UniProtKB/TrEMBL annotation, chain A:
Protein name stated in the entry: Substrate-specific component YkoE of thiamin-regulated ECF transporter for HydroxyMethylPyrimidine
Transmembrane segments: 17-36, 56-72, 79-96, 102-120, 127-148, 154-180
Record key words, sorted: Membrane, Transmembrane, Transmembrane helix
Pfam families in the record: ABC_cobalt
Classification via InterPro entries: ABC_thiamin-permease_prd (IPR017195)
Domain of life: Bacteria
Lineage, highest ranks first: Bacteria, Bacillati, Bacillota, Bacilli, Bacillales
Length: 205, 265
């Protein structure tokens, strides 16, 4: 087999998003956009407690990015998915309106950064957790300006940041990874990644 | 949103969707740069006015949509009020420590969330998704692959709802006991999420294949559009309103403050 390995290179060069990639990413994001919208009122009910219990649930809003990347594993998917899910939330009349687009963009970038750091080749739990932390840090960056969170009493600020990080590691990191792996077992992901370079290399060897 | 509900079309519906989106997004940056609660209050009023007057939806339905605003205001304000930093203590009980500074900062956050929610709801109620994506293709050259993917995804929403109902009925018929508590929640989530997502991916993939078969992705030649979107008189009115209300809010808020603080930082 001397023709197949060439496509191993070709797939890397052709890391561009195809129509199928885009469509799948956006459809998955629409589902998460719905979840994002439902998540809003729940978060608001928890929030007046003031002890940041609601921050544990914040990680749900980072899920589209990590989850879509774990399915498709191409550059740009995490950003596209986060922005798309945020757009759907805004369209459904989410409580944070158009500002979710800014959050989505930054959170997507934060997650994308870590996927890029591993050259888009790793899709295990560790990289998923790192990406979720990236998204959380990006969201905290905007909240510093929007919510003056740095002007909370120090113990409260520290609690806020650690709750959000913990929540995003559990939900957007580990849960997203577990969900993606469960989907893997249904076989649908073979539609998205028909054969990897590794498969061709295996044939080659 | 709410394509199925009848509404009266106002000039706000005729504003170019890309223009409206860009202005709404920029207004968020303006909010980030506003530290004077007096100005923020007026900016919130300026955002609520067009929503109340020109959304084209009947008042009762509008109130229903806007009902989370109160909760939003309380939830954004209370945390900062009780636990924010500040010097002049008004009230202290255990961990709760309300100071003058934190109280006004909390109010400021409440006004911010009102403004953001009002701008967002006004946008959602006066913009059809189809119009937005057609306009983005025409005004911002958004690639058709992205725009039509969004539109296709929107059309899958009813199918998704139908599938959810089917799935629920199937699970009911099959019966069986599921563990209670957190583990039960996770089980339930898994039973719904995985088939729904798998079905979504399959359907999206089939749609993409069908679009490709019709040479959609080839991208050759210039696209033509069934709907054309341009700028109109409504756009001039919208830009003028946003500009004038913003300037007015800054002037009035600074010269005739209602609250005794100038800045919350």
């Amino acid at each position: 087999m001397s023709t197949a390995p060439a496509s191993g290179r070709a797939t890397r060069a052709g890391n561009r998003l195809t129509l199928a990639d885009i469509l799948v990413t956006i459809v998955v994001s629409v589902v998460f956009g719905l979840v994002y919208k439902i998540w809003g009122p729940m978060y608001d009910v928890l929030k007046p407690l003031g002890l940041h219990a609601e921050q544990l649930s914040y990680g749900m809003w980072f899920m589209a990015g990590t989850f879509a990347f774990l399915l498709i594993r191409k550059p740009g998917v995490a950003i596209l998915a986060e922005v798309a899910a945020a757009a759907i939330e805004a369209f459904l009349g989410g409580s944070w309106g158009i500002s979710t687009l800014w959050y989505g963009l930054f959170q997507g970038l934060g997650a994308e950064l870590f996927f890029a750091l591993f050259l888009y080749r790793k899709a295990g739990p560790i990289v998923a957790v790192l990406a979720s932390v990236g998204a959380a840090v990006a969201s905290i960056f905007i909240d510093r300006y929007y919510g003056y969170i740095d002007q909370l009493a120090f113990w409260n600020y520290a609690l806020f940041v650690s709750m959000r990080l913990l929540g995003s590691v559990v939900i957007a990191g580990l849960f997203a990874w577990a969900l993606a792996r469960a989907l893997e077992r249904t076989g649908v992901t073979s539609l998205l990644r028909p054969a990897s370079a590794k498969d061709y290399d295996a044939l080659d060897g | 949103m709410n394509l199925s509900f009848p509404y009266r079309e106002t000039w706000l519906h005729r504003v170019n969707p890309t223009h409206k989106l860009a202005v709404s997004a920029l207004l968020f940056l303006l909010v980030l740069l506003t530290h004077d609660p007096n100005v923020m209050l007026l900016l919130a009023v300026a955002a609520l006015l067009p929503l109340a007057l020109f959304s084209g939806h009947p008042p009762l339905r509008l109130l229903l949509y806007a009902s989370p605003f109160l909760l939003l205001f309380v939830s954004s304000a209370s945390g900062m009020m009780m636990f924010g930093s500040g010097e002049t203590v008004w009230f202290q009980y255990g961990l709760i420590r309300i100071t003058e500074e934190s109280f006004y900062r909390g109010l400021h956050l409440g006004f911010r969330s009102l403004q953001v929610a009002a701008v967002g709801l006004a946008f959602a109620l006066t913009t059809r998704p189809v119009a937005l994506f057609y306009s983005l293709m025409q005004q911002l050259q958004l690639p058709a692959r992205y725009a039509y993917s969004f539109l296709a995804a929107f059309n899958m929403l009813p199918l998704l709802a139908e599938e959810f109902v089917t799935l629920r009925q199937a699970l009911q018929i099959r019966g069986g006991r599921r563990p209670r508590g957190l583990r039960g929640l996770y089980e339930r989530l898994r039973m719904y999420a995985i088939p729904l997502l798998a079905q979504c991916i399959r359907r999206a993939h089939r749609t993409a294949a069908a679009m490709g078969a019709k040479r959609f992705a080839s991208g050759a030649g210039a696209r033509t559009f069934y709907y054309r979107y341009r700028l109109s008189a409504a756009d001039a009115g919208y830009a003028l309103y946003v500009l004038a209300s913003t300037l007015l809010a800054w002037q009035l808020g600074q010269h005739w403050p209602l609250l005794p603080v100038k800045s919350v930082v």
